[in-house]
Structure to design on (367 residues):
């Protein structure tokens, strides 16, 4: 069984945010797997996506579902915990222990709610870098992330060029495009218009017990963008629920039942304000912001960069990653670009590990 440690670090120094605001104090929760070697040269950083957390692998006591990248991280796996010390931090703004909108706002002894500052992916990365400094980790073997985790990985490459030997960014982009922003808009509006949301002054215990219909609807839209035409066809086809009549007005196809179940279940474990803040961070993500151009930003990269896209990804299209690769070629930056043959869609980076895990092994082995 995979052994892991879950820790929390408290920071009293101000975190200066990209917006000009300050977050002070703040906490970061993180999880580690494997053993740190004597010279601290075996560190692999994992960055999580929108609804992920620091719990990337292993099983919590009493739970059946392991961490979100359990198939990739562990003894003998692509990210081998017998060889590497793996660390995954929960981003600021999230709802799994790091400081977010429902954290207590000092000195008022009440949650921040909408008084929480807008954070960016760049801020998330800056906070993690401060955490690693405190832990005495000043250089790492690799940083790996998919989707919003890939955004973080790319920001690490640009902001801290000498920090990581290797950067592996999967299913991501250089700047969030209108298609993804549009899906996030549906989710945001659905949450805001739900009366139970109560303009951000909801009771979190009621949400945990009963869920939030508006958020469930938004999450259904999100799930559509995570899959693809082919994966939906393969997964559901035109199968109808066996106990529903075809001519019942609210009878369901299997795909409808899937969206409903996942949408409503999601709202009981993910905070709606965190969802609003993190989707905002994703929407405003732009690797070139603060630089003269994208080329200027990419020109800072010194790590061995591996870009992995998925052909059927509808959320972050493969040509978005190809664009990064083309710019890097023009800049004379050595890198590797892989376009994985997959029909699964965006979530392939979470599900079809067998299609890309060998690439990760090779990078970590120095091949």
């Amino acid at each position: 069984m995979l052994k892991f440690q879950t820790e929390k670090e408290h920071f009293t120094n101000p975190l200066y945010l990209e917006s000009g605001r300050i977050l002070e104090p703040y906490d970061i929760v993180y999880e580690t797997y494997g053993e740190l070697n004597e010279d601290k040269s075996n560190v692999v950083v994992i960055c999580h996506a929108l609804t992920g957390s620091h719990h990337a692998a292993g099983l919590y006591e009493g739970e059946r579902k392991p961490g979100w990248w359990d198939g990739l991280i562990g003894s003998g796996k692509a990210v081998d915990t017998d060889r590497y010390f793996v660390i995954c931090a929960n981003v600021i703004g999230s709802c799994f222990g790091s400081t977010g909108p429902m954290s207590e706002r000092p000195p008022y002894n009440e949650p921040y709610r909408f008084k929480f500052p807008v954070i960016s992916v760049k801020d998330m990365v800056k906070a993690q870098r401060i955490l690693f400094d405190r832990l005495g980790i000043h250089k790492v073997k690799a940083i790996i992330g998919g989707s919003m985790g890939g955004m973080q990985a790319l920001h690490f490459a640009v902001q801290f060029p000498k920090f990581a030997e290797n950067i592996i960014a999967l299913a991501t982009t250089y700047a969030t495009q209108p298609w993804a922003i549009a899906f996030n808009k549906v989710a945001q509006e659905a949450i805001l218009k739900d009366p139970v949301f109560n303009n951000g002054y909801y009771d979190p215990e009621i949400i945990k017990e009963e869920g939030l219909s508006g958020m469930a609807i938004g999450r259904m839209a999100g799930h559509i963008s995570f899959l693809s035409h082919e994966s939906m066809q393969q997964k559901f086809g035109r199968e109808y629920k066996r106990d529903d009549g075809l001519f019942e007005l609210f009878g369901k196809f299997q795909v409808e039942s899937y969206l409903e179940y996942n949408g409503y279940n999601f709202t009981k474990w993910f905070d709606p304000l965190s969802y609003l803040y993190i989707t905002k961070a994703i929407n405003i993500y732009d690797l070139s912001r603060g630089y003269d151009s994208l080329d200027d930003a990419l020109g800072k990269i010194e790590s061995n960069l591996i870009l992995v896209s998925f052909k059927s990804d509808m959320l972050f299209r493969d040509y978005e990653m190809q664009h990064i690769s083309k710019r890097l070629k023009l800049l004379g930056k050595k890198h590797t670009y892989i376009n994985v043959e997959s029909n699964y869609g965006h979530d392939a980076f979470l599900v079809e590990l067998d299609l890309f895990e060998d690439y990760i092994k090779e990078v970590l082995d120095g091949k």
Observations:
- Residues 192 and 199 are 7 Å apart (CA to CA).
- The mean pLDDT is 96.
